[in-house]
Amino acid sequence: MKAKSTIIFLLLFFLFTQKNVLPQSVKNIEQRIDSVLALMTQEEKIGQLVQFTGDWDTGTHSTEPKAGKKELVAEGKIGSFLNIFGADMTRGLQKIAVEKSRLKIPLIFGLDVIHGFRTTFPVPIAEASSWEPALVEKSARMQAIEVSASGINWTFNPMVDIARDPRWGRIVEGSGEDPVLGAAMAVARVKGYQGNDLSANNTIAACLKHFAGYGGAEGGRDYNTVDFSERTFREVYLKPFKAAVDAGAATLMASFNEIGGVPSSANHHLLTEILRDEWKFDGFVVSDWNSIGELIPHGVAKDLKQAAELALNAGLDMDMESNAYTKHLSELLAEGKVSGKTLDESVRRILRIKFRLGLFDDPYKYCDAEREKKTILNQEMKDATYDVAKKSIVLLKNEKEFLPLKKETKIAVIGPLANSTADPLGPWNQQGDAKDVVSVLQGIKNKCGDKVKILFEEGCSITGKETDGFGKAIQAAKEADVVVLVLGESLDMSGEARARATLDLPGVQEELAKEIYKTGKPIIAVLMNGRPLTINWLNEHAAAILETWFLGIRAGDAIADVLFGDVNPSGKLPVTFPKYVGQVPMYYNHKNTGRPYNPKDNYTSYYADYDNSPLYPFGYGLSYTKFVYENLKLSAKKFSKKESLQVSVEVKNDGKYDGEEVVQLYVRDLVGSVTRPVKELKSFQKIFLKKGETKKVEFTLTEEDLKFYNLDMNFVSEPGMFKVFVGTNSVECLENEFELTE
Ligand code: NOJ
Q1: What pTM value is reported for the model?
Q2: For residue 280, is it within any domain?
Q3: Ligand 1 centre and the CA of 141: distance in Å?
Q4: Torsion of Cα atoms, 535 then 538 then 539 then 545, to 10°
Q5: Ligand 1: which residues within 6 Å by Cβ?
Q6: N or C: which end of the chain has fewer CB within 10 A?
Q7: Is 288 an active-site residue?
C-alpha cells in the first residue's frame, strides 16, 4: 500500500512539474496512457468522454464556451469542445485544461471543416467530380493547414456516406453514389488532413462520418429510417469507411439513423464488432449532435440514463452535446450497468488520439496567433482553391462545340445566381465570407476586360414566384450575342435537414430560361446546386450546360476560365442525374432483376409513363476535345485467383484541344451465388493527352477486385465469367470478357 502511494506521489510530482505530462523515458503511447489512467478519478475519466459546443449566441467570430463550462474544464470534466476556434480563444481554454485541471489533460477542439475554414474550397461533391484523389488530398491538406493555425486539431470530415438519392440534402457533403470512387476520395481526404505525421502542428485528426448508412434515408428525408441488407450495407455503404479506417483515420462519428431497428449510437454490432473487432480500429468514436439523447425518440431508451448505458456499452466513446455521460455514467457505474473496464477503454481511445496529436507534449501547438495571421486566407490558399475549382466543373452539354466562347462575344449574364457572392460558398461553409467570393459575373468581367460589354440582369430570385424581372432580362438577352444563364439552388437548399421532394429548378427559373430561349439567343446554362437536378428542358434547349456545384471563393474565376477555354473541363459526374424525381433512387450499379427492361415486352421492369434511362449517367462529363477509345485488350482470357489480369485500352485525343480524360473500368460478374450489379466501377485513371496524342492505359485486376459477400456472407470471389467495360462513362464503354478460375 505504501509503495503504491509513493508511485502515485512520484507520478503526480512529474505531472505538476514537467512540461511533458509524463517522463520523457516513457515513450510508448500505450504506457503513457496507462500512467495517466492510473491517476484518473472516475469523474475525470467521464470528463474525457464529454464534448460541448461553444455558445452560438455570442455571435462573435469565434464562439465562447457557454457559461460554467470553463469551470468544468478546470475540474477535468470536459475533454473536448466543438465550434470554438481561434488561436487565442483555444489557447485560453487549453491553458485552463493544462494549468488548472488536476491532471493537465489537454482538450481536443473539433470543428466542421467540410470544405475549408476561412478559405472556402468547392463542396465535396464538386471535388469528387474531379475524379482526382491527389487533388482532393491537396485540398484537404490546405484546409488542415489553415484551420490548424486557428486552434483546431480535429475536423468532422470527411463525410463518406454513399448517397443514391438526390433528394437527400447531404449528398452535397459526400462523394456521390459509388463505393470505389467514394473510398478513393475518403482515403485522399484522410491523408490530406492527417498528413504523414499526426503530431505535426499543421495536421489534424479526421473523423469519418456518419457511421453508418446515413445516406440510405428512406425517401431521401434527412434523419429518416434506414433499412437495407447487411450485404448492401457492407459492399456499398461501409466500403469507404473501411478504406479510410485502413488509411489511418483517427476518429469516426456515429450517425443519427437506425438500420434495421438499431440506431447507430446504440449499435454494438457496428461500433464494436465491425469497427473494432473486425477492422481493428483503435481511435475513438464521437456521437453526432445529441444522437445519444435521440435514442429516446428512436424508442430504444426510456430515458437519458438508459441512452447513456446503451451508447457506452455499444462502443460510443464521446458524447457530443447529449449530456448523457455527464449526468448518468457515475450512477450507471455504481449500479454495474456499465463496467469500469468499458469506461477505461473509451478513455484510453480518446487519450490515444490526444497523444498521437502530440497534445500532451505541446498543448499549444495549434494556438499560435502569428501563424494564424499569416495563414488564414493567404494567397497560397486562394490559389489552391482555384486549382480544385477548375477541375470540379462538369460539362454536361456542348452542342456543335458551342463552347469555348471568344472573348469578344457580347454577353448577357442573367440569372439569380449570376452575381451572387454568397451562394458559391455552398452549404457547410465554415467561416466563408461573401466578400471574398468572385461571382460568375465578376469572373467574366475580369476575363473580358473593359472592351467587351457585359450585360447583367437577375431576371428572378432563386425561389420566388415573381416574374417582374423577366422583361429586363429578355431585353438584355436581345442585345447580346449569347446568354450565360446562371441557375440553380441557393446555398442553404442542400446540406443537413435540406431534403427536397422535387429536383426541379426552384421558383420560376425554368420559366425565365424559356422566355430567354424565345429571343433566339443561344443559352449557356451554368448550374450551381448541391444535388442532381431534373433539367430536361435545359438539356434539350441550351446550347451548352456546365455543372459547377458550389465552387467556393474562386467560383467565378474557374467558371470564366472554362467558358472561354483557358481551362478545358475534365470533371465527371460522381452521381447519376435522373430525368424525373420518380426514378430515384437511381444509380448505375443496380441489379439486373429477373425482368430487366425490354422495350418489346410489357412485363419488364420500367415506368409506364416515362422512360428508364438517366438524364446523365454516373461517370459522365464532356470535354472540349474528343477522346476515342480503341483496342480494349486483356492479357489473357482466363486468370486464376493467384494471378492478375492486365486490361489495356488505347485512348486518342482526336479533337482540337489538349485535355484530360477519366478512363473508367467497370466489371460485371455474370453468375454468382447471389445477384451482382450490372456494372461496378473497379478502377479509374485520369490522363492528360495533347491534341492528336494517343496513350495506352493499363489496369490490373486481381481476385480482390472481384470479391463480394457470398450467400454465406463470406467476402470471397467466385470463379466464372465476367464482363469488363472500359470507357468514358458508365454507359459508353468498350467491352470484353474473361474467366476467373480457382
Ligand atoms: C450534426 C451533423 O450531422 C454532423 O455532420 C456535424 O458534424 C455535427 N452536427 C457537428 O456540427
Answers
A1: 0.96
A2: no
A3: 21
A4: -100
A5: 82, 112, 156, 209, 288-289, 496
A6: N
A7: yes
